[in-house]
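Hey,

The postdoc asked me to send both predictions to you directly instead of through the lab channel. I've kept everything plain text so nothing gets mangled by the mail client. Protein one:
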Amino acid sequence: MGKYKQRDRIAQLVSWGHWFTFANIILCLLIGVFYLETALPAQTSIAAGYLMVSWLGHFAFLPFVFFIVLIFPLCLLVPYSRILRGYAAIIASIGIFALILDALFFRQYGFHLNTYSLTQLATDAEEWFAGGSFVMLLLLMLGFLVILGIELILANLTWKRHPQLQAKRIGKISAGVFIVAFIISHSSHIWADATLYSPITQQDDLFPASYPTTAKSLMTRHGWISVERFQSSHDRLTGSQQLAVRYPTSPLLCSKESVEHGVSVITFTTLSAESLARLNAEVPALTQHAQQHLGHRSVSDASYNLLFGVPDVYIESIRYQNLQPAYFNVLGDFAVTPSLFASEHFDSSELPYSLQSKVQAWQPSRLHGNNLQIIFAAESDIDSAITYLQNVPNNQRVIITGLVANSGPNNALVPQVEHLQVPLLSMNMVLVPRALSALEDIMPTALGSYMNCADDFRSFTNGINLQEHTREFPRVLSIKPYLYIFEANQTTVIDQNGEMQLFSVDGELMPGAVPPTPVFINSLRELQRFGG
């Protein structure tokens, strides 16, 4: 008889464990809403459906795993309800507490808890106010005690109401829904991963402890997709990947600045040391800036990068949509005419296709009042540039740069930034000294003379106004075929296959080093900010 009582007690404890787990599944689903709010808008109805079934399946799976691994064995080994209820409440409290902390951290920083996260939290807390990390620790402890109290209530409540709960069908129905959602979400991800369906695969890092199933080989083996189709899709995405662009990201809310001068932006295809020396010698008013200023590997890509101020991964989409720089219309509303000029030997076909009809032949002797002039010049036309600069009035602001580096092995096989540096000069304007600038900073710097926008031009460029004091590091630049993440003490270079190399400030390779997780995640988010 004792054996049967023991068996009944174990069965009752296991059944109670299911209902206690069900209560925690509901809690996890509620917490999971925080992740849904931070998700990028679903691009398709299929992606939206996947997001919902993934939410149901994943946050039902997490508590169930805790039950199977940590609670179920004790139902067999220690079949005493009081001990088991206390133990289960502690285990569930730890899990729920970690999930809430991760959700809050993910909303703030965009990545999940890891060994770096608590240090980052403490650092930020100290920045908010002195002793902030100690206050944060007290709040965390108080939060855990509150959660523990809730879990103890749930454990006791489900035990006392166990007979009534057993009589309800909601448990079996809900379990069926969760199981089906789990299967559908992983099956959908298998298909999306195999066919490179990005509206689904881009959600991979949304939920914590999420490892979606991938099975390219399984699907190709069964003939659901062809190897050739997968390989061609993979090549398109990793070889010449171009992102769909949403440009501008929002309407430009800008006010007009009082303009008493014009701005000229002169960009040479290349600018050798000899030409640079001539410019400095014959135009003494020029200021050459010693900061690291980066160009591009391609004149065509560099012209897009400069005029639009967005990473080069969006060039194909800009070209396909036949877009023009977003600030053109705003300048027109302010009665300022943006003019494009090409010198005698500059190949205008290198400029964005949508703007080629607007390009005029450059006449160095002609000025254009308070308007914005963007001049593309071949290095062989340096004499014309010198003539122009010697005749500009004292209030005319000038920015000069090169598009492509003139020295060093400037090719796709050389990742080091030293081979991407181009000169940066200015006249009649003060640029804030900084360690790094790039082509996408040129137009925000020029436009700062004409308008002031609510978002500091972020709706249409990743660049910054070099006349203002702004946060400099970390910073991400895309210069095909590499992605560069710049920090104060190191630079991360990522190739199109995802392989990383880290270089010190002296340009020395740092084997085995990796960038901090938040820097890496936030850099990718910044790069994809214009993604459609």
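Protein two:
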Amino acid sequence: MAKVFNITADCKPGIHYMVNLDARLAAMKEMIDDGAYFTINRARQYGKTTLLRCLNRYLQNDYYVVLMDFQKISHAKFESENSFSLSFSKMFLRGLKANQMSAKDDFVNGINSLDRQMKEKNPDFELPELFECLNEICIGADKPIVLMIDEVDSATNNQVFLDFLAMLRAYYIDRDINPTFQSVILAGVYDVKNLKRKIRGDGDRKVNSPWNIATDFTVEMSFSEAEIAGMLQEYEDDYHTGMNISMMAKNIFDYTSGYPFLVSRLCKLMDEELVGKDSFVARRDVWTEKGFHEAIKLLLMEKNTLFESFSEKLINDPVLNSMLCNVLFAGNSIVYNFYEPSINIATLFGFIKNQNNVIAVSNRIFETWLYNWYLSTAEMQNSDIYAVSLREKNQFIVNGHLNLRRVLEKFVVHFTDLYGDRDETFIEEEGRRYFLLYLRPIINGTGNYYIESRTRDRKRTDIIVDYLGEQYIIEMKIWHGDEYHTRGEKQLVGYLDAYHKKEGYMVSFNFNKKKKIGVHEIVVGEKRLVEAVV
């Protein structure tokens, strides 16, 4: 059976195209060899389950590995220590017996003791009795035991689970005199060190963190450009598309920053959705710049669990919503503070990151999706500037090419007519938003755009527009004097060099009362800049 790109559940090496995880697995084994207890906290669909299952196989020669999934323990089983301990025992034994175990007497006796408690459903079997059995198994085992628990979030609101963690911690502290698990790994979105915030109560046990023994997990789980290239090479060996692997890997990484779901989804769209569609007759036509940007367009238009989660967080967290809107449209630099609840939750879900101690959206895909989100609100789409663009959009496409100069000319006219009497604050805070709102219906459904984060601030923003494989670079800036204006022209020229373009575009929001509104050309060296002044 041919391999496929996978976006659901875990990836399996025999049937899915995957990046090579060996470096991650080796780094994690070093932590386990050192006896570290740690958590893997990453956003959903970030490859946690795949990594744990691969680690399970990777450790088999040196350890007994018990891999558990707390999603398989129902909520009702967490209502008492007895019901949890019995359910845990059943799942633990199943996981332990999946190993190739020796017949060492003490080991077998410990397993049988736990098995008996589980089968007899002893009503007095609670956490202390569970850990006595686990301790007996660890003492008797001829190899150290590693416990891995996936989807640990399923238990985070339960006091019994906190008590379970506290017992693990107690045995960890005494491990020099009483053998216990070599390592415990807990995987989920939330960091269990913060669980104390979710439990109400006056007792000290409910206030202190039960998992303050965890070692920091610093293994990088995002895919690197080289890792993406390795996965594409495996695909290329199977299908011989003739793709430029290094170029394709760079494009995918540039847009996703290595977010595993986004990487796999783009590849899956190209492999399964584009072949035979429109001009993509065969795979060789898909794995090109044109095919890549078509996949980007499809991804941004689709409904998937990741984007649904993002929209849910924005709707339910107005602070986060406002924060990201200010970052994207006003160019505000907001200090990154992980302890601010909205920043914390957005980081845990992988939507934002700490970039030089300020908030930044995690990748281009998320950023473009956010722009589309904000520009799709009823308030925005009911605006006059959107309506006039939607009405006149057909005049901007000539022989299949985007006439961007014409777009700028008409934008100057419409923006001046509609908002020319507004004050400086409105133009500074809303000008760029209204230009994107004007641009969107013109390219929507055919082209893509993204904001170059390295140049986005209160003074300057660069937009890269891709329309049917042709790229246009537009600099939007707020007027801050002639000297800054000249410097901006030089910066745009440098950017055009990087993209191998001879023509660039500028939209200048100018507060100078003597400004000359309109569109004119500037020649800088061999480059031609078309500037619109509003």
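Summary for protein two, as requested: The radius of gyration is 28 Å.

Thanks,
C.
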